[in-house]
Structure formats: C-alpha cells, structure tokens
Amino acid sequence: MKHEYDLIVIGGGSAGLTASRFGASVSAKTLLIEKGKLGGICTWAGCIPGKIMLHQARLAASGVPVTFETVSRELKERRNYIYEQENYPDKLRSMGIDVAEGQASFVDQHTLSIRQENGETRQTTGRYIIIATGSKPYIPSIAGIGRTPYLTNHSLFELPYPPESMIIVGAGPAGTEMAQAFQRLGTDVTLVDMSHHILPCEPAEITSVLQKKLEDEGVSFLLGATPDAVQGDQHQIVMKLRQNGETIQRKAEKLFFATGRRVNLESLKLPNAGIRSNSNGIIVNSACRTNRNNIYAAGDVTGRYQLTHMSGHMAEIAARNALLRMPVTIDARHVPWAIYTSPEIAHVGITRYELEKSGKKFETYRLPYHKIDRAVTDRVQEGWILVYAKKRSGKILGADIVGEQAGELISQFTLAMKNGISLKQMADTIYPYPTIAFGARRTADQWYVKKQNLTLIKWIRRLFRFRGPMPDLSDPDRIV
C-alpha cells in the first residue's frame, strides 16, 4: 500500500524535531505536525527559559544590577534566537521536511486527521509514525484550586514583574531551580514539599549542600508538609498545609506548581489505531516501538523519562528502528541528569541506594571540591564528587556530584561508563590544570590511593632500599 509520507512525526518538541531531522537525513519523505510553536516545552517553557532566569539570577547574586525588565527582555530575545536558528519552520522545510500546523489524531494505523486552528481538517497517511506529543504540568487535587490563580512553567516566564513573594509547591529540579532564581531576583520564596528533604530522588548528603545554600540565600522551607487547601486572587494566595500533624497557613503574592508532569494523550484518539497506553503514557519497548509495528513513541509521552536529552535519544532510536530497521535500543544504563542551581547537582548511572539495595560490592571514591585547585581559585569550593566503582577493576557504576559545573563534569563519567573506561584509565589520563574537570582525574586517583597496602610498600622499600618513613594508611577514607 502506498502512503503519502514515509514518516510522520506528531509533535515538534525535542523528540519530534530530532526524529524529523533524522528522517530527512536519510531521504525519507517526512511530515512534522505541531499544533503550537516548534521547539516544544524545552525552548519556550522549560530548559531554555529556566537557564536564562538562573543566569540572570547568578548575575544579580554577584552584584551586577539586574532588573526584571532585563530578565523579560533576555527571555524573549534568547528564546527567539534559538527558535530562529534551530526550529523555524522554513529552516526545516529547507531540509526537505514538510511542516503542518494543527492537532493530529489517529483515524487508523496509518492515517492521521489534522485539525487546523480555523477548524478545517485534512487527512494524510504515513508508512511509519512517531508520536512525540510530550507532556503538560500536573496539578495536584487541592481544595479550592479550581477557583485560585496559579502559575505553571507555561506562565511563570511570562510574568511582567517580580512578585514580592511566592509559594513554590514541589522541591524537585524545577522547584529548586526557580526557588533560587526568584529569591536572588528579589522575591521572598517559600518552598513546599511532602518529602522531608529537597530533591528526594538524590542522596541526602548531596542535597544538604544545596539546601544549606538556599537557606543562606533566604529561601524558606516547609518540608514534610502537605497542602490541604488554597484560596486567593491575583494579589494574594493563602495556603493551608499539614505538617507534623498540625495545620499551618502561609500567604504569598503568587503560587507556582512544580509538581511534575503528565503525558499529552487525550486528543490523539489512540484506540482508533489500536495503540496501547496506561496511566504513565504510551507503552513502548526498548526499541521505542508500540504494539503496532509501524508506530513508535519517544520522549515524555512514553512516561519513561522527563529529560530533553533523553527525548532526543529516544527519538533517534525510534527513527533508526523505523526507517533503517536497525536493531538499536534505549541506553538506559548511562542516563545523566543535572540540576542547574548554584551549586549544581548531577548524576549518572546506578544510584548508591540501588547499589546498596542490590547487594553489589562496590567502593565509593570521593573528592571534596576544596581539593580542586580551580574551585579554590574561583571561590566555589563547596561540594563533592562521589564515584561508585568496582574495587578490583575500577569499573564505574555511577556518580553523584554537587558543586560548580557539576552538569559539565558529569559528562566525564558518562563518557567513561559508556565506553568502558575505568578509574585507573582516567587516573592515567592527562588533564589540563587548573580546571574543574581536573577534579574528575583527582577522584579517579583515589582508586590508586585505596590500592595501597603496607605489605606491598614494605616489599618495595626493601627491594629498592628506600629510607623514608612508612606512609600512614590507617584512615580508609583518606584523600590524597
């Protein structure tokens, strides 16, 4: 059966753009359908505006005069620059990608209906289809929420002025990043979460460094607290919460929910194509394929990861499998992520909790930032590098970092893990000095340090007739 397109991609965010470009790169006739503006959440209401806010807040914290007018201008200019450079429809069309504006829904396994903003519809067919419709903010069920104005990431970056005070519900990555950004820009921030520490998925010894920093900067915390009810208007919000069995109340000018996301499925009419899904999203296998052989899904809509880089990775896996029939699968073992506060937090691989729970034998190699000379010269010596590896071989199993440029530094360990590079090999590699990256080398050096033993040193001392004192190896956690 002939179809109008070799590949149809639904959704123009990170996953959809990646899949479309891959299709064009192998000469597949490709259609990209997007109901809004290309670029998706990351460009307009996620990664990019969040990092713009954090950059401006960092300038303000360092003493540079920053007005909210400047922040708003930067948000507009930087987002538009990225859109025009990377995601502008005519740019995609110049690559051979057809772009259609509208809401797509399935008619059958190969046929889609596209409803345009003016109400007109048309149908088109595709040999292969990749669903990349992303996700939207999840708002918890709280008494009074339907009558109370609140912010999500879709509206937060459109504020015309800095609020005097703000309650942020959710102490995950988005909540902590925006808590620090707005606090540094002059807003009195209260961060609320049901967990008893921020970033509950990260190790407490890592998050405690960031929490202390936020407290020092003036952020208030209500942890282990559950919102019960909320009411208010555009000028003041009143929230009632339960904490330690007591009811407390907090007031603020604005309320921002950073409580996670849920997938965009409602308008797709998946049953028409027989596509299986559940409450988490579209069900796919490790090749990103649905239960329909010609239909794939990638990114947030699968419910697997809520990371832009993983959306792109999954989209490439889906496109390769669909168009080239290459048996490639998601790399779930080497997924890095980063939280871009000051200090930053980053992770890759197996968590220490998972390692301990599994009973696997491993060694923790650690280095404080004050042992990194570049961190000392730049006065950013708060933080730690923690690497979990096999004791004998130095094979890296995972890493946690809190500190300056942690998001950049984690890539050192991601690359090493992906390519089977051990701590020994990292320690034997020449790094430029002084750099923050040199801290990765110094952490790897600890593998050699832990290999030292008195018997071997005594043997070397006797063989070469050395006369110096024996080193003190009594502290197993010493850092050399």
Count of all domains? 3
Discrete helix count? 15
Approximately how much beta-strand content do the residues carry? 15-25%
* Total strand segments: 23
- The value of Rg in angstroms is 25 Å
- CATH architectural designation of the largest domain: 3-Layer(bba) Sandwich
The largest pleated sheet is described as: 7 strands, mixed
Describe the global form: globular
Q: Residue share in helices?
A: 25-40%
Structure, described:
It is built from 15 helices and 23 strands. With 480 residues, it is of the alpha/beta class. It has 3 domains: 5-38 and 88-137 and 262-324, FAD/NAD(P)-binding domain, CATH 3.50.50.60; 145-259, FAD/NAD(P)-binding domain, CATH 3.50.50.60; 337-464, FAD/NAD-linked reductase, C-terminal dimerisation domain (Enolase-like, domain 1). The strands form 6 sheets. Strands 1, 2, 3, 4, 5, 6 and 18 form a 7-stranded mixed beta sheet that branches. Strands 19-20-23-22-21 form a 5-stranded antiparallel beta sheet, sandwiched between helices. It has a 4-stranded parallel beta sheet with strand order 10-9-8-14, with helices on one face. Helix 3 (47-61) packs antiparallel against helix 4 (68-87) and helix 3 (47-61) runs parallel beside helix 7. The longest helix is centred in the first third of the chain and has 20 residues, at 68-87. The radius of gyration is 25 Å and the shape is globular.
